[in-house]
Amino acid sequence: MNNNKRLPHTPPDTRHRIRELAYFRMIHESDLVCRQSTRMDRRTFAILCHLLRNVAGLSSTEIVAMFLHVLAHGSNGSNVLARPRS
């Protein structure tokens, strides 16, 4: 008897859809869920997204790069726009 049961394979498009739904719930379900996930309410999150895309003109790649920079350096955001050191 083999007790090592494998999980069934989930197609990549299904995994992508599950992730999409999880992110949608995280942002749009309620202020409580959004605040727990992002530390800001839905209105503030929407304003931030608008500012990053439309005012600052950042692409998705630039937004992700800034996010990872903040995570990597334990920054509070004050040095995000400073030039990275060589």
UniProtKB/TrEMBL annotation:
Name of the protein this chain belongs to: Retrotransposon protein
Superkingdom to which the source organism belongs: Eukaryota
Organism of provenance: Cucumis melo var. makuwa (Oriental melon)
